[in-house]
Amino acid sequence: MPRMRGLRRLGRSTRLPLALGAEATFVARTVDSDRQHLTELLRQAAAHPGTALVEIYQNCNIFNDGAFEVLKGKVVCGLWAMGRTMYAYPVG
User: Do the Cβ atoms of 38 and 57 come closer than 8 Å?
Assistant: First the structure.
């Protein structure tokens, strides 16, 4: 999985390789604070004819407020196959 600025602090996600291994054809990630992007992404996932995985980072304003602010405006959604980005778009 390629390294992207801002995501290193969040650690490596095992969901993407697992989803690709399970032949998911729609894999995406978003944050809960961007309502427009979240809504559109969930609509696309629901309309997708194959298996879809959407990972949603949720902010906890009590214990870890602002933890995912670094992700806004970064390329954090996409599908990677064979070591290259197949589809990606920015959040925010």
Answer: no
